[in-house]
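Lab meeting, action items carried over

1. Structure of the two-component assembly. Owner: GW. Status: complete.
Input record:
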Amino acid sequence: EIVMTQSPATLSVSPGERATLSCRASQSVRTDLAWYQQKPGQAPRLLIHGASTRATGIPARFSGSGSGTDFTLTISSLQSEDFAVYYCQQYNKWPLTFGGGTKVEIK
Amino acid sequence: EVQLLESGGGLVQPGGSLRLSCAASGFTFSSYGMSWVRQAPGKGLEWVSTISSGGGRNTYYADSVKGRFTISKDNSKDTLYLQMNSLRAEDTAVYYCAKRPDSGSYLFDFWGQGTLVTVSS
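Predicted assembly:
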């Protein structure tokens, strides 16, 4: 099983600042990596797939990068609606696995 | 507009059974693979099972549910199912159904709002 490790567990950021979230895979997943956003009481929402392709309707302030084992989600200028938990997921091999999540909170 | 509406959750005793349903609309259900993903209270996301667009033999399960859960798909009713048997306390979670994208990759581009399953005596 491919283990996905996200860091940090919690990220405290002020509105308007940049947030950088990391996701590391225990073995290469090429670019078969997705990012999701989840707000309290809501279902997750797809942000990024293919490591760097924004999903439909996702603002340009969200960007993804990386390949192989190391990936990054960057939110260029945090808006109030961006405070949430973010998960990465690999879909290169079965079983599909998620990272433990990074909570982005208001500083 | 894609909509996924789960139902069938509730309180069940350990060892019991439950069948979840996910009614789909807004897309050609028969053309898409579907999945179940769960989230224990206060915890992260865990993939449970995936079925191909046509259903049938092309099914995949997490080791934690293999042999106890069965995923199925009725394309005539636009509905996804998860039959859960031999339930354990650790199966307590919100269960989401989720759709695969057009690319066919095994990720989830739309999610339902979830249904809560509580396994407790």
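2. GW to write a short summary for the group page. Key points so far: Chain A touches chain B through 23 residues (CB under 8 Å). The mean pLDDT of chain A is 97.
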